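Reply to dn_fold:

You asked what the input looked like. This is it:
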Amino acid sequence: MSRLVLALESEGDFAIADLYQLDSERFKLALEILDEWRLDRHYASKSKLFDVSMQLAVLDSKAEDAAPAPAPKKG
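and this is what came back:
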């Protein structure tokens, strides 16, 4: 079980066949761990996307503030 958790956290390899060597209760626990890890990864990626989007919005706002005002139109 600990090898599964370490593989997930380090994004390392884990032989899926090793899951079938577990007894029924530990197998169910392993599936719960995988499910939770997958959900956490989903939220972590959404959080990163939101963070990058916010940083870009701030940079765009600063660029607009620093840009010179357009010249008045003649005519």
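The chain has a mean pLDDT of 82.
Hope that clears it up.
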